[in-house]
């Protein structure tokens, strides 16, 4: 019997319109490979704490692979884009043209301003499989 690879867990800020919108976009393009977990959920906090993150961390997207390896921030976004079909892979390559320090700085600017620029929900978004 063939061993089935576990889905990649995507932990996102369920209150952030940008974050939940990106998660919904990914779900449409790569939902079969990913499971979406709001960071604010019990499961989200459990995964974060297992990897040494604060249970209330919402500053950046976090990805946990089937091998329980973790990525966060800009590298996590690039990993997710590679899962999102042809358009996602192209976008990942285009972003990858820039130096890593620029990508991380750009990510940090957006992450630090996401509520001001895109808004914040009153309740936590949940994405159904």
What does the overall shape look like?
globular
Relative helix content: 40-55%
Strand order, biggest sheet? 2-1-3-4
CATH class: Alpha Beta
N→C terminal distance: 25 Å
The radius of gyration over CA amounts to 14 Å
Biggest sheet features = 4 strands, mixed
CATH topology call: Glutaredoxin
Strand content: 5-15%
- Helical run tally: 5
Residue windows where pLDDT falls under 50 for at least 5 positions: none
Topology order in helix (H) and strand (E) letters: EHEHEEHHH
Mean pLDDT: 86
Tell me the number of structural domains.
Answer: 1
Kindly list the characteristics that best describe this protein:
Glutaredoxin; about 50% helix; four-stranded mixed beta sheet; 5 helices; about 130 residues; alpha+beta; 4 strands
